[in-house]
Amino acid sequence: KKIVIATKNPGKAKDFAVLFEPKGYEVVTLLDYPEIEEVEETGYTFEANARKKAETIAALLGMTVLADDSGICIDALDGQPGVFSARFAGEPKSDAANNAKVLAMLGAQKNPSRKAHFHCTLVLAHPDRESLVVEGDVAGEIAEFPSGDNGFGYDPLFYLPQLGKTMAELSDIEKNQISHRANALKNLEKSWAAWLEKDAD
Ligand code: ITT
Ligand code: NA
After folding, report:
1. d(CA 3, CA 30)
2. Which CATH architecture has domain 2-198?
3. Are 160 and 167 contacting, i.e. CB atoms less than 8 angstroms apart?
């Protein structure tokens, strides 16, 4: 069994491998299709962007495709960077610059709330079907400084008080038991079989 994920982000690709391989799936991503250009994310919602990525690539490949649009939403920044998480500090996309920008913006506030959450919207698309949309979140706090080498993106800044660690200090398996991506996938599993069956003919 193969699952095609419309992502070019190696960190996400790794998360999806950890999530799907135990279920017997081989994960294929756009990193395996270098000739396919990145789908431009013009939307202002996670759903719009995930839908665009999934539906564009499903039409192109003529098969079922899953896409992920995700980001970190920080209370003291009114939910920023949100859908702009990937390029918060501008081009070229840099995780280190994004983390530094978040710390600088919080540092400019007096006693900011450190509360934040990661969000993930997954869209499952097929050229001949209505897409399936699900979401997942995980709550945490923005640490005072980055720590940990695992994961990607904002993981070194995302502190989980109940675990006493940042997301980047968790193993791949631990991250993918509690992450926004894992929670979205649990929701996908609830409706996936029915979605596959419904339009099977
Ligand atoms: P694709 O569109 O190719 O999938 P992308 O990185 O551009 O890759 P998004 O537009 O969905 O994906 O941006 C998501 C950004 O949110 C990502 O680049 C990270 O900065 C952040 N992010 C999402 N999930 C994360 C996670 O599990 N850990 C840390 N940061 C995450
Ligand atoms: Na993207």
Report:
1. 11
2. Alpha-Beta Complex (3.90)
3. yes
ipTM surpasses 0.90: yes
- Written as one letter, the residue type at 42 is T
Structure-token match 């400084």, residue found:
145
**Residues 39-43: contacts with CB under 8 Å, at least 24 apart:** 39/6, 41/69, 41/83, 41/86, 43/83
Residue type, 85: S
- Does the bond joining 92 to the residue before it have cis omega, within 30 degrees of 0? yes
CA of 201 to the centre of ligand 1 (A): 35
**DSSP one-letter code for 81:** B
Q: Domain limits of the chain?
A: 2-198
pLDDT tens digits for range 129-188: 999 999 999 999 999 999 999 999 999 999 999 999 999 999 999 999 999 999 999 999
Top mutation candidate among 9, 33, 69 for ligand 1, by most atoms within 8 Å of CB: 9
Does 81 sit behind a cis peptide bond, omega within 30 degrees of 0 on the bond before it?
yes
